[in-house]
Each structure stands twice: as C-alpha cells, then as structure tokens.
Amino acid sequence: MNWKTFLRQQTTQPVFLWQMVAVVLSIGVIGGVITSRLPHRYSPDSNSIGDVVAAVRQATLTSGGIDDLRNQNVPYEHLLIAFAFSADVDWIDPEQAASMIGDDGDRSTIAVELIRSVQDEVPTKTLVQMADQRVAYSRLAIGAFYLSQQRYEAAAKNFEAEVDVSDSPIARQFAVDCYNAANDVTAIRRLASDPQYQSLISPSDRLLIAESDQDWGKIFWIIPLLMAERMDNAMAAGLAVFAAAGWFVVLMQMGQADARTGVRWWLCLVGVALGCLSIWPTHLLNIWQEINWDLLEGDDWFQNVKYYVLGVGLREELAKLLLLLPLMPFLASRRNTIEALLVSASVGLGFAMVENMGYFSRSGGTDSMGRFLTANFAHIAMTGLIGLAVARVIWKQQDVSHALLVFLLVMLAHGFYDAAIAVPELSEYSIGGMILFILLAYAFFHEVRMAYVPRSETISLTATFLFAVSAMTATTFMYVSWQVGLIAAATLLATDIVSLALLVYMYLREMPNSLIR
To answer: Relative to the CA of 103, which of 58, 218, 465, 492 has its CA 20 to 30 Å away?
Structure first.
C-alpha cells in the first residue's frame, strides 16, 4: 500500500480523524503551558498611550504580574501608567510601587500618591499640592489617574501641563493621544500647528481634523495610512495571515480548485485582495454614518444595538459587496454555484484578515480574542451567501427581491451577532449571537452540499477542515497564553471554542463526506 492509498483510507476514518484533532489540540495546550511561562519583555510598539496601556495590561496578566516590569528599564512615565491601571484592580500597593521606583525622593512619593488616588477614586491632596508646586511628573501622575477613569479630556490637559514642567516627550505623545480619544478637534488642531507637537500628529489625528472639516478628499487618502498604522504588530499580523491561509486551503479543496470545472483559485486570490481593500470603503462609510446619521456607540443599550445593526452590519456587508461586484462578470459566465459562493466567500475572508489585524493592534491582542477564531468563518459565510444571491439574480434564477432579502437578513444577523458580544446589557443573551453564527454556518454548508460533487481524494475534505480548525485553535491558544497567561487565555477563548465546536458539528452534519449520517 503506497502513502496516497494509506491517506485516502485513513482520512475518511472517524477514529483517525478524532485522534488527529486530539493530537493537534494537545500540542496547543502543551504549547500554551510553555509559552505562558516564557519571559515577557515590556516592549510597547511606541510611546502612544494605546500601545503603552496595551503593554501594561499584558504585563499585569502574565504570571509575574506587574512585578515583571522591575529591572526592565521601563520609562518612569510608563510606570505611572502601569501603576494607575494596576491599582484599580489591586494588583499593586503603595509600598510595592515605592520599591519598584527605587528612591526616596519625589518620584517615589508621586507613585505612592497616584496609587492611593486610584484606590480612593480622587487625586490625593498631596499629589495636587505637588502639582501646584510644579514638581516634575506630578501632573503626569494626575493625568494617569484620569486616564484610568477614562476621563480623556482631563488626562490630556494634565499631560500637556506636564510638558511645561518637565519637557517630557512622552507626556507630549500622551497629551495628543488623549485629546484624540476625547475627540477634541480644537486641541488637536492647535497642537498640529505647534512645532513641538507636529511630528507626533498621527494619521488618526489628521483624520479627526479632516472629519471636522468634512474634507472628503483628505479623508479618502488618510484612511489607508490609518489602516497601515493599525497593522504594525508583526506577530499578530502573522497569526491573522496564518488563520486566513488555513481557511483559504479549506475553500480551495471545497471548490475542487484542481479540477477543470472547479473553482478558479486565482479568482479566489483576487477576491481575498479585494476583501482586504474593502476595509477602505468600510471606514469611509463609517465616517459618513457618524457625520450624517450621528451613528455612534453610546451609554444607551438601544443606541448601541442600532450602531451595530445599521452601522457595523450595514457598512461592512455593503463595502464587501461593492468590492465583489467587479468579479461578477467572471462568475456570471460559468453559472457555477459553488464557484460563486466560494469566490464571494474569499472576499469576506480578505476583509476578516485585515479586520483581525486592526483588532489586535488596538487591543494589544487581548480584548478582541473573544471573536478572533469565529470572525473568519462568519465573514466567509456572510459574504458568500450575499454574493451567491446576487449571482443568481444575474443568472435569472431568482429576482432582485430575493437578493435584497438575503442581504437584509445577513446584515441583521451580522449586527445582532456583534451586538451580543459587544453590548454589556446583552451579555445574558450572548447565546443568541452563537445561535446566529450556527444559522449562518448551516446556510453556508447547505449551499455547499447542494453543489458539491463528492470524489476520491488523497486527503479528504473533512480531514483538511478538522486539521485547519484544530491548528488555528491550537496556535491561537499558544499565542494568547504567551500574551496574557494560561488561565486568562482559556477564559478569553472559551466562548469562541464552543462556537467552533458547534461549527464543526454543523459541518459534519451537512457535508456529504462527513462523519455524521
């Protein structure tokens, strides 16, 4: 028996497939244990407040906690941010902070008073007096306090005041970033004209000014710069590309790309590229909705649901569809159902890959992990179903009303799926988001099954699917364990892993060469 025959036989056997899954996931767990124990250097990508806060959160979540920052030559300004965010959850006490500073002077006193301020939820009299006396870094400490309370305007004013005392370049960067977080266009515009601050003005800051001026030409060209700025984490970008590559392999085998009548692989690659570019009009639509519809996240749960349904769901599905339309002439000529479905799905995959990179950059690879594993397939299914509905209109198999209905249903599913994850008031209904995800999976796999022609393969489609999902889960678990520790990684990924398990069940139930009859 040659190796091809061996694989052809084994990769259709349930025992072999489940053993393969168990081995891959076990490697992920063992790897997670190992990576969680690796030394974690404090290395923010820049002095921007977002990068510093993300690095601080990672430091406090690892096994050594904030004490890992000791002896790492962390700038004093960064330590104050770390103390402000750690004191809020009782991960550090004043004595520990004084010990980490390592002197008995003003810097140690400022650190101690900052921690007491956070714990008392108001700046201490001592810290305020030091600021009034223009003691270096006292204003920065007060700014760190307000930052931990998400009072960005007050934080920015104190960081800017610190510059007048200590001329700290890090305080300058903090001031710019906090004015941006507070959407204070007047302050950003003022700092952008100041020679001391001009080099610190980022694409995000320039976009804020352009939005205020409603200068759509500038907005259009700033967006790609902003996208590039949010993709500077090489490891996170690598993980996003790895996951996308895994799904692309599954789609190619699902579409039998090696067969003459199968899906054209190059068309799917073009679809992925167009999906990446669809982030551009998505940002543009986001800004247009903010300006014209006042569609923003707020404190009201209904407003937030409206934001995710009419905002996120509508603009993302519309942007992906707009970038898919140039491929429709190629799909119309062959009238191939599975090709139309999978080429459209490739556009969704490209979008998800770039979106994941942006999530990692903004959250330090932690907050967004609760959706990373399912985001790729969710966009694959949503864009695939919409694209197929449009193709059927072109083929005159269905009328326009059917395509509009599919778009509306997918848009609503997308919006409510995101809202179930992101809106705190809906947390007890989070299972609703999971149900929507499974319904999307069912609809997608049902379309594949109806068009799929089973054939003999060296490695079965089911084996490829199970290996890809297992490998993505294992790799992600190792990465997150390295970032935030083993227990936190398991907590962050728990819901996604349950959703993936249901996705696997739906695949095995619907696909013709599955394990469930």
So the answer is: 58
Contacts made by residues 420-427, CB under 8 angstroms, sequence distance 24+: 421/370, 421/371, 422/304, 422/308, 423/301, 423/304, 423/305, 423/308, 424/301, 425/301, 425/304, 426/301, 426/305
Is the CB of residue 171 less than 8 Å from the CB of residue 140?
yes
Distance of CA 290 to the CA centre of its chain: 21
For tokens 């349930």, name the residue: 14
CA dihedral of 102, 104, 105, 108, whole degrees rounded to 10: 60
The residue whose two tokens read 């270096």 is 136
Prediction pTM value: 0.91
pLDDT of residue 96: 73
C-alpha span between 60 and 224 (Å, rounded): 33
Residue type, 386: I
38, pLDDT greater than 90 = no
**Residue whose C-alpha is closest to residue 174's, from 197, 193, 195, 194:** 197
The per-residue pLDDT for 492 is 85
CA distances to 206, 239, 370, 474 from 478, in Å: 37, 11, 15, 6
User: What pLDDT score does 261 carry?
Assistant: 84
Question: Could you give the CA distance from residue 208 to residue 355 in angstroms, rounded to a whole number?
Answer: 20
Element (H, E) at 135: none
Tokens of 225: 């710069």
Alpha-carbon distances of 500 from 351, 432, 435, 481, rounded to whole Å: 20, 15, 12, 19
